[in-house]
């Protein structure tokens, strides 16, 4: 490559982290390529409805409307001015030696990079509950996306289960929009939530806002519940069976269930480009390793919830930092990072409080009955995972080959954490020792026709 | 034809109507609906599970879980949570008869 050509920087993801990274690169005079799965930039939490929808930013994003609006306007301005290249509705499905295979509406194209910034975000961290394969069971994120991007509730009568900030937020948002929320069932007991409060004081205003939202749920909210099973018949969900903190069995009729235990970092691309991972005890999941700026090595940088689960505010900061690291490594004058690093440290303390207050339900997963489905893609059961976990010597990828858990179309995104938990129990080791499922290209299903060329 | 479905429209109801075919029957949706919204506005499922008896109706709505792939009469499948419905689209809850 000629030395006069500017470096080609590709950003994957146009949520808060990707947009801030792109803007920082544009400020330095570069023209990044931004590849995003959405039709319109914004990411998931600041997701925009399709053209023709009329609700205001305040209606869509509540207290975060100004932040969402600023990010959308910034990205649109840069895209319209030709300061960046936006590949919308496009998925990076593979990466090899600096070349990304990008699946879009017109097939697969190859986009090469000198530096890569991954801002791939997160999805709901879900734990299997018997019956969760039934129609009408969705992730909490899905319930929120349906409301924001489509103006709909995914059921007539809704029960939300799980734990974490999204549980309360989605419940309050659905109620405000006029949906019938029958119950909000939190697996985290009060004493556990209080334990997280000390660190949550790192962002007192955000913590207070969370408590105010919780108050809106009123008597629908129950802490410290035990989730027994999702009842279903022909058409789908009919009820949630659970035990309250006092041990009394309850049945709540509903036709939709939203579930989630905070977030799971989306790391398949980080895996493909060779990032190192460690099992993070605080978040009970595998996370990629970088320095504090987001440098992963080999010209790759990570930012946002795909690296550390700090939420949208943290993602904006991390996006700026990753871009600053990238610029510094290329020999460009980089913006100062010290203020952002201090802000990020405060958000990390707060996130630590959330992780403590709303933990992953280890005991619930380990006690799953053998006939409960763990992998929704192919209905692989807990019994099959346990049996093959033993045959596979307690190793994640051998268990995957033997039982097919994690080999379905979602590639383990929604079953891996539970499967690894089951294997760890079966073989008497830790989830960290069981290991993680290897990421495999294509990381999204791709039709074979997308790879074919005319002539 | 209005048939009660899984979803409840809470806002943005003043959009133009579009028509599509589901298993050969005409159905109404609103411009800007995803295929998932359109199908579940008058139905309860998107497809049948290949591995169990239960119908499926999507799960993550953000393109990650792959639960919402639906068939079209002409062959290619659509990811119902991200594709927008369009006038005259021909969707089906079962694979075409010609599929092996």
Automatic annotation (TrEMBL), chain A:
* An example Gene Ontology molecular-function term: oxidoreductase activity
Cleaved signal peptide residues: none
Q: Name the keywords, alphabetized.
A: Oxidoreductase
List residues of the FAD/NAD(P)-binding domain: 8-306
Domain named SoxA A3 is located at: 381-450
Query: Record's superkingdom?
Result: Bacteria
Alphabetized Pfam families for the sequence: Pyr_redox_2, SO_alpha_A3
The keyword Iron belongs to this UniProt entry's keyword annotation: no
Q: What is this protein called?
A: FAD/NAD(P)-binding oxidoreductase
Gene source species: Mesorhizobium helmanticense
Automatic annotation (TrEMBL), chain B:
Which residues does UniProt call coiled coil? none
Instruction: Tell me if rRNA-binding is a UniProt keyword of this record.
Output: no
Superkingdom assignment? Bacteria
Protein name from the UniProt record: NAD(FAD)-dependent dehydrogenase
GO terms, molecular function: iron-sulfur cluster binding; oxidoreductase activity
* Keywords from the UniProt entry: Oxidoreductase
Statement: the UniProt record of this protein carries the keyword Oxidoreductase: yes
Q: What organism, scientifically named, is this protein from?
A: Mesorhizobium helmanticense
| Pfam families associated with the record | Fer2_4
